[in-house]
Protein: Homeodomain-interacting protein kinase 3
Organism: Takifugu flavidus
Amino acid sequence: MDDPSAFLEEPDLSIGTFLSESLQVMDLLGEGAKTCEMEAVKIIKKFPGLPVEKNELVILKELRSLDPDTSNIIKWKDSFTYQDHMCMRYELLDQDLHNYVKARGEGLLIPELKSVIRQVATALQHLRSFKIVHADIRPENIMIVDRRQQPIRVRYRAPEVLLGIHPLTEAIDIWSTGATLVEVATASTIFVNEEYDELSQIIQCHGQPSDEILDRGKDTASYFCEQVNSDHRWRFKTPSE
């Protein structure tokens, strides 16, 4: 299969670029840009044939009715286009949780972890009320409002995601939240990035998924092979296989 990134259209973006008449890029933050109006701009790169930006825009419009302060969901302002790329304007928060933990050099304390759990759970509860699955919870996507006054506000893929099991439910968000909490508590990642090794670690910790679950995965055959005369119909492949 061809690498999808080969078809990804990159926007012409650098510090000083004007995204619109009133928005100029002052710094590059990875997922967005910091502007002179102190806003964050997320640029969704075009991928031919996949209307990702339209789907995200529909979701953001639904969530706009929520109070960001009580739902713990970042405030979305509006959108615009730049070089045919969809740009989303958000409130600019202080720092993501990954860099916060990395900068202080140690994991979070129990009271801080409780705050993270409470606020992430609140956000997930609001998403569930709209029948929305986040599907990408990780320390980089949990933002801190002000690390000095409010220390915390809110490869972590569940086995269902790795195996291609659909439809996905909010259960994958619970899994990702748990993996995130382990990382920020210990200041170290719980799972490796390579998919085979990640699934291997999951099996070592929690055991192999049942045959019923594996039967539903469109990508199961990439990691398991079928066998006969065994209690389990699926066997986890060795690295050489």
